[in-house]
Amino acid sequence: MSSSFSRRLGKLTDSMLFLPTMALLLILIADFFLIHDFFAISLKSGHLYGNVIDILVHGSPTMILAIGMTLVIATGGVDLSVGAIMAIASSVAAVMINPTIVGMNLTDPKIFINNPQLTWAPLWAVIVVPIVIATLCGVWNGFLVSYGRIQPMVATLVLMIAGRGIAQLITNNIQVVIFNDTYAFIGNGFFILPFSLYVAVGLFGCAWLLTRRTSIGLLVESVGINAKSSFYAGINEKRIKLFAYAFCGFCAGIAGLVVTSNIRTSDANNIGMYTELDAILAVVIGGTLLGTGGRFSLMGSAIGALVLQTTITSMLSFGVPASAVIAVKAVVVIAVVLLYAEQVKTFVRKLGTFSMPKETAQ
Amino acid sequence: MPDSENPIVEMKGIDKSFPGVHALQNVDFSVAKGEIHALVGENGAGKSTLIKILTGADRADKGIISLDGHVVSIRSPLHAQEQGISTVYQEVNLCPNLTVAENLLIGRQPSRLGISIDWKKLNTRAREYLKELGVDIDVTKPLGSYSVAVQQMAAIARALVVSSAKVLILDEPTSSLTANETAHLFSVMKKLRADGIAVVFITHFLDQVYEVSDRVTVLRNGSLVGTYATASVSRLELIRLMLGRTIADLDDMTAHKMESSQHISKDALLEATDLGLSNSIDPFSLTLHAGEVVGLAGLLGSGRTELANLLFGVDKPDTGTLVMDGKQVTDFTPAGSSNRGIALCPEDRKAEGIIADLTVRENIILAMQAHLGWFRRIGTKEQYEIADKYIRLLSISTPTADQQIKNLSGGNQQKVILARWLAANPRLLILDEPTRGIDVGTKADIQKLVLSLAEEGKSCVFISSELDEVLRTSHRIVVMRDQAKVAEFSGQVDEKEIVQAIAGSAS
Question: What is the DSSP letter of B295?
C-alpha cells in the first residue's frame, strides 16, 4: 500500500506542473495569513473586484506572451523581441484608429478627439492588421534563426532594438490616446470577469489544441531535444522553428493590443518594456528548460505567469513600494534557478532515499 | 629497440561493461619505453574505452594497471597527467583564443616575484619548446590562428612540458592533417621514441601503422586479438585480424540467403549514376533492386557513410543523378527521401538517431508522423498500438512504451530506431552500422530481420565494419576505399578477394 502511495507521490513530484503549482500555492497560503482580506472578492455592478481578479487582469499579458515563448524555448531558442513587437502592434493599432497623428489630412481631424465611437479603419482591421504585422515580425525572427542559422539570442536582439524604433516611427514618436470605447473593452471590459482574461484563456485553449491535437507539439519537442536526429527522422526542423517564432510574434501582437487597450494609450517607448524577461521567467518557472528546450508545458507557463503576478500583487498589497518590487522579482529568479538546478534536484532525491530506505530496497 | 620485457605501462585483464554492452573483455595491453605502439580496431572494438580507462576518464570494472612496475589506480585525467600519461585528442582541446605561449605554459607560467607573469620569459620558453619539435612560429599569436597541425604540436609540447609525459597517447592525430604535416608529425614521434617516451598511436590508416609503429595491438569486439611486431604481420593479415573471419559460420543463414535471392526484382528501384560530392565521396554508380540486400564493406572512413548520406539526402550531391521509380530526384533532404520511401538508420545513434528525452513510443512513431505532417496526428491509441507492435516484433526490452529512450541499452535504442523506420514502411532501408556496439544476440536478430525484410520485397543497404556480417547478409557486396567505390561482387564471393579490395594492394 505504502509503496504504491510513494510511487504515486513520485509520479506527482516528477510532473512538470508540480513545482510551479506548489510555488503558487505557497505564495497564496502566505498571503492568506499575512495580508488581511487578500482573498476578498466583491461584486460591483456586475463586475468582480479583488486582489485575485487583479492578478488575473494584470497577469494576462504575461500569460499571453508566455504561451508563445513556451514554443520558442521548447525548440531550444529564446525570443527577446516580444516587448518590441508589442510596441509595434500597438503603434499600428493606434495609427489605424487615428491616422491624423501621422499627418493624414482628414476633413475634420477633431472628430477623433473624445469620440468613443469613431475609428478611421474598421474595428476588425484595427485588431487583425497589427496581429498580422506582429506575426510577420515573428516570421522574420524565425527566418534568421532557422534559415540564417543565427543564434536565437542575437537574431531576436535585432528586432528587440530596432522594433521599438520602428514603433516610434509609425506614430511619429507621439503618445497616442485612444478614445474608442469598443477597442478599450479588450483591456478594460468585463463579462463578470475581466475580458482580457478571456482573451488569455481563449488563446491558451487554441495553443493547446494547436500543439497537442496536431503533431506540432511532438515535433517541436523533438527538434528542441535533438535537431539533428529530428532532421534524420525526416522532420523539416527549420519549418518547425519558423513556426514557433511566428506563433510567438502572433502572441506578442495580441499582448500588445491588450496592454494598449488597457491603458488607452499607445506609447511606443514604454509598452512591453522588459516584458520579454517576464515571459521567459514565466516559462522557466513552468518547467520548460531554457537553453536546452525539449519537453514543454503550456499549463506550466500559464501558472508561471500567475506565480510572477501573484508575487508582485502580494508585495504591493503588503505595502512594499513599487520600485522595490523588481528586487523581489530577482529573488524569485534565484529561487527558480536553485529549484531547477540538477545539483539541488539530486540533493533532494538523496535526502528522499535516506529517509525512505525501505522503499528503495525493493 | 623497444624493451618489451619491461613495459612502462601494463594493463592486465581489463574488463568494462556499459549498460547492454560488454565493451572490454579481459584485455591485456602494454607499452614499453621508447616504442611507438599502434592500437587498431574497427568502431566499437574498444579502443576508445581502453584509452579512457588508461587516462582515467573511465574506471575499469576489473583488471589492474601498473606504471613503472607499480600498481596504480588512475582516478581522473588530471591524475593520469600527474603520473605522466598524457593524451592528445583528435580535436585539440586547448583554448583557441589564448596565445600559443599561454596555451603551452598555462599553470606553469614563469613569474616575477611570484606575483606577475613574466611574459618575456614565457614567450621565449614556449618558442624554444616548439622549436625542439621543429615548429618555429610566433607564439604570441592566438592558437586558433594556426593550422590544426600546429595546434597539435602545441598540444604535444604541452603534454611533454607541463606534465613531463612518460607515455603520450595520440588519438587519431592524422585524420585532419595533410601528407606533409603527417610526415612532420611522424618525425616528431620518432624523435620522442628516441628520447625514451612511449607513444601510443591510435589510427585507422593502416599505411601509417606500417610507416611508423614498432608494435601493433589489435582489438575486435571488445576483446584482444593480439599484439604483434608490426614488421611480422602482413597488411592483409592485419585487416583480417581487425575484421574477423567467416570461420564455421556457414549456418542456416547462408541457405536462407540463397533461397531469398530468387525473389530479387529485375527492375531497378533506385539508380545512382556518377553521383558524387567533392570532399566527401568520388562519383559512383549503383543500382538497387527490390528484395535485395546490398552490403557495403570497407574500413572506417572509406566513404560508406558518405554514400549512405547521399542516397538518403542528408547531403546534396554536386555531380551525377539519382533516379527512383524512373523519376529523377531533385529534393535531396531526409524528409523528401522519407516521402519517396527511403529510410536511414544512421551510424551515430546518439547524435543522429535517438531523441533522448522522448519516450520509446514517440521515438517509434516519429518518422511516420513527420511523413504525415503537422495536421494528421496519429491518435494516442494508435501510437500505443504501433509502439507495442514493434516492441513485440523486435523484442525491444523496455518496461513500457512510455519509458524514455535514453534509459534503454544501446542495442534496444538501435531497435527503436529500426522500428521508427519500419513503421514508416519504407521500400529502401539503409542501415549504417546497425550492429555496432550491441550484444551478439541482438546482432543475429538484426541480421535475420534484414533478410526477412528483403524477402518481403524491400531493398536493403547494409553497412558494417564486420566483414563476416556483410558476407552473411548480403546478396551483393560493394567495396569502398578512400572515399570511392572500388569493387562490386555478386553471386558466390571469395572472402579473400574482398579483403584485398578493402586493402587496396596485394601486399
Answer: E
- Cα distance from B351 to chain A (closest Cα, Å)? 6
Domains B9-243 and B250-341+426-503 share a fold: yes
537553453: which residue's cell? A291
A299: left (phi over 0), alpha (psi -120 to 50) or beta: alpha
Determine contact: A222 vs chain B, CB below 8 A.
yes
Test mutation, B332, B338, B348, B358, chain A, max A CBs within 10 A: B358
What 3-state class would DSSP assign to B89? Answer: coil
Model confidence over B266-310: pLDDT tens digits?
888 999 999 999 888 999 999 999 999 999 988 877 889 999 999
Q: What is the CATH number of domain B9-243?
A: 3.40.50.300
- Cα(A304)–Cα(A20) distance, integer angstroms: 6
pLDDT per residue as tens, chain B (507 positions)? 444 567 899 999 999 987 656 788 999 999 999 999 999 887 667 888 898 899 888 889 999 999 888 898 888 888 888 888 988 876 667 888 888 888 888 777 777 777 777 888 888 888 988 888 888 888 888 988 888 788 888 888 888 877 778 899 998 887 767 778 888 899 999 999 998 899 999 887 778 899 999 999 999 878 899 999 999 988 878 877 887 754 344 455 666 676 777 778 888 899 999 999 988 899 999 999 999 999 998 887 788 999 999 999 999 999 999 999 889 999 999 999 999 999 999 988 888 999 999 999 999 999 999 999 999 999 999 999 999 999 998 888 888 899 899 888 777 888 999 999 999 999 999 999 888 766 666 777 788 888 889 888 899 999 987 787 888 888 899 999 888 999 898 877 777 788 888 887 544
* Cα gap B82→B65, rounded to integer Å: 15
CA nearest A218 in B: which residue? Answer: B362
Contact state of A230 with B377 under an 8 Å Cβ cutoff: no
Q: Do A232 and B369 make contact, defined as CB atoms within 8 angstroms?
A: no
Is A228–B351 a contact, with Cβ atoms under 8 angstroms apart? yes
Nearest-CA distance A240 → chain B (Å): 9
Evaluate whether A249 touches A141 at the Cβ level (below 8 Å): yes
Domain boundaries, chain B: 9-243, 250-341+426-503, 361-425
* Reported pTM: 0.77
Query: What are the backbone dihedrals phi and psi of residue A44, each rounded to the nearest 5 degrees, phi first?
Result: -120, 120
H helices, E strands: number in chain A: 16, 6
The CATH number of the domain covering residues in B250-341+426-503: 3.40.50.300
- Integer-rounded Cα radius of gyration of chain B: 25
**Per DSSP, what are the bridge partners of residue B481?**
B484
- Tell me the chain A residues in contact with residue B366 when contact means C-beta distances shorter than 8 Å: 218, 222, 230, 233, 235
ipTM score for this prediction:
0.86
CA-based end-to-end distance of chain B: 25
Distance between CA atoms of residues A110 and A93, nearest Å: 19
Question: Among A221, A225, A234, whose Cβ lies nearest the Cβ of B334?
Answer: A234
From chain B, the residues in CB contact with A244 under 8 A are none
d(CA A171, CA A267): 9
Measured in degrees and rounded to the nearest 5, phi and psi for residue B269 equal -90, -45
The DSSP bridge pattern shows strands B111-112 and B116-117 to be antiparallel
